[in-house]
Amino acid sequence: MWDNMKKITILLMILICILTLTGCWNLREISEMGVAVAIGVDLVEDELMELTVQVLIPRRLAQEGYEGNAVVTYSTTGRTTFELFRKITTISSRKIYIGHIQLVVLGEEFAKKGILDTIDFFERDHEFRRQAHILLTKGVSAKAILETGSVIELIPAEHITKAIDNAIHTGTTKKITLIELFKDLNSKGNQVLLPTVFVRHEGIPDVAKDLRIAGTGVFDKDMLIGFLDEFETRGYLWVAGDLHGGILVIPSPKDPLEFISLELMKVNSKMSVSLVDNKPILQIKIKADSNLGEQQKSIDLTTPEMIKYVEEESKKLIKEEILKALYKGQRVHSLDFFGFGEIVAKEHPKYWKEVEDDWDTVFSNAEINIDIESNIRRTGQILQPSTPE
Amino acid sequence: MLRRIMGLLQYFKYKPKRHIHSDTSVLQYGDAIPTTLKELISKLKLIMNNDGDLVIRSFKLSAINCSEGILVYINGLTDKKSIELNVLKPLMAEAQENKMKYLKNNRKVIDIIINEIIQSLNCSTENSLDKIIEKLLGGSTILFLQDEKTAIIIDAKKWDTRGVNEPDTESVVRGPREGFNEDLITNITLIRRKVKSAKLKFEETKLGRFSKTRIVICYFEGIADKYIINELKGRLERIEIDAILESGYIEQFIEDHPLSPFPTVSNSEKPDVVVGKLLEGRVAVLCDGTPFVLLVPRVFIENLQVSEDYYTRPLYATILRILRLLALFITTTLPALYVAVQTFHHEIIPFRLFIAITAVREGIPMPTFFEALMMVIIFELIKEAGLRMPKPVGQAVSIVGAIVLGQATVEAGIASPLMVIVIALTAITGFIVPPLDGTVFFLRICLLIAGSILGFYGIIFALVVIFIHMCNMKSFGVEFLSPLAPISDGLKDTYIRPPLWSLLFDNTKFRALEDHNPTEE
């Protein structure tokens, strides 16, 4: 009898523990939540934040032959992100679910004041999706971006995330997810760069095709201080080894107004820092493999001399792009957004201790050594270009 | 409340008291055979309640001394032609000169009849009336003689049996089609025909106070573990029941864990399966009146193996075994996983799928759990209806099930199309492991409830509880999860079906554990 009593007591204790000590769990039906696919943060008057949330309309997702977008946007203003999220539930009929957010858009004005104001919530919240893309606006508010519809996609946020995914193959912008941003923010040195979106023409964009995603925003700590255009961005990507493809356009050997396009296939880059007389020399080593993709003149480019010419021209182009980016870093912003600081800290920890506080100045005055190797691997489907007689 | 639970536990632990039991406590007619035939006939009629199927045939024993005699048998259980030709005819034939001399040698009439006159194969003598009645009811023909205290029992039984047909339960693409039928003797011969070895032993007992059902324990001497045989015999002896109508009765008395959802006694309708398992060291229990032969011990992995695995080539058989394991997992956990994902773990669904789910879930009035529970139960109802109905009606049932409940619930917005897919997949995979049919349904519901309360955590918790339970189980001294846990020799032929030549017919597939000596080879 007592044996049984003991068993039952233990069983009850286990059951109570199971039901109470499970951490956070929450039963929620999908049909009762408002699924947020994108959020935008802006700065409005009186230093207030404005949060815009793009929420799915499930009814429209299921509707056959529906031609508009299956989303609705809600905006509200307040002081903190969490407060705003709660406020939005009073506007929408359903509780906002942030576990499937695909895109986070940060307004330019907001970013200038420092993005940490909202990043902490993203980091702290257990539900927030860390794989969300991050985008910075340029000359337009995040709200306007989120309110822009898409013709092709049912969900406009998806249009933008797909555009970012495609843009990294041209090397004109950098793709960064939330978790990578957290990593960059916590690294030594200032390596935060966010892709930017801007509107092609003046005014409020109609549909997502009016938007352009190119270039990057440069951050000092968590504050936006400037932008890199698409060539400067590619210069940065060459150095950082983050380039996944792109087209190199070089002048034709006979006529400088006709061009040759090279398709970048594979890039290896290595950053290192060597110390000479207690002064850092920044070493950049790049090895690029590309294919001949197009030429506008009928020249036989398959001869060794021509290949040599193309390789040399591409080297020049790469070097030019890198120098542009370095100029922005060393002269314009005096900011090491390439991440040389982290390399110094790893390779020369003693030296890093000395210059840690003043690294950006040391970086600005550092000597640079660029070593580029460019190879043409293939020349396409044809040997000789078509030559009309 | 606590007291009530304890009471329930007491009930679970209830063990019936053993009574001292013998056949005579039920049927008692007195042992001696009445000397005069007249008395005997009236006594027989009294015992048999003057039943219409009792036949008493009087005759004159012309072959020897012209004394009176009677043949008694139950109509319909006896091979009448054989009795007429081999018993009645020689007994009533005119005495020949050479036969008369037997009497002069002072020999007993009974001996003369058995040795010289009756031409039946199976003859014996019996003094006890109780035993005689038992034999009579079993289908033997009894020969009584005037002034004799001993009766002759002629074993010439014949009754209608179903032919050896292909069983419905274990159909195969490749393999023998024959199945057991309701006749014990036929079943024994079916096993005998497969293996011509003197090591194959059949031991007969009788069970059931009234039914006196013949039970045969069958095993391979030298392969089957003595511990298992003795344990089985002991458990069979302890059975106290009025009648055994099916081997399922025996199963429920001898199984180790009567309250567990997992069965620990397997059964088969096919001789090749039974012989295969006998050769692996299992012990079979054949029961008269049913084609289902019990086999002990039963381990978990057996549920994923079928006889056809060994008839087809190893590669495909192995793939099928792994698929069966997958099917078992799907059929038990899929509804639970679906509900857990839908209500707790939205973030693990890929975004595109999540959008699709939000679209189809929109407008469903019920919580996902009830939607799933409803569909699981509806499917089980359809299945049960289809089983019990005559075949033509069964088709109508499946049409109602498929169209009305499948399509109409979706169109009416009661259930989402995804849920129908989940339930359909659950149902189909459930058919892949037929030996665990009932178990699977029970586990499915348990996991569904666990998953709907605590999400993945609940499912994992329930699975852990199930595994602990399985690890605790034993079937006739053999660990239920062996050879997987504890790992033992037979691991070779579990998930993977190795080529037969590599198995080398080793008999180490499992062994009973502890407190007994290993098999004497």
From TrEMBL, chain A:
It comes from the Bacteria. Its main location: membrane. It comes from Alkaliphilus peptidifermentans DSM 18978. It is found in: Membrane. Residues 215-380 form the Spore germination GerAC-like C-terminal domain. GO terms for biological process: spore germination. Keywords: Germination, Lipoprotein, Membrane, Palmitate, Signal. It holds the Pfam family Spore_GerAC. It is a lipid-anchor. Residues 28-197 form the Spore germination protein N-terminal domain. One of its GO terms (cellular component) is membrane. This is Spore germination protein KC. Belongs to the GerABKC lipoprotein family.
Automatic annotation (TrEMBL), chain B:
The chain crosses the membrane at residues 322-344, 364-382, 418-436, 442-468. Pfam families: GerA. Keywords: Membrane, Transmembrane, Transmembrane helix. One of its GO terms (biological process) is spore germination. One of its GO terms (cellular component) is membrane. Belongs to the GerABKA family. This is Spore germination protein KA. It comes from Alkaliphilus peptidifermentans DSM 18978.
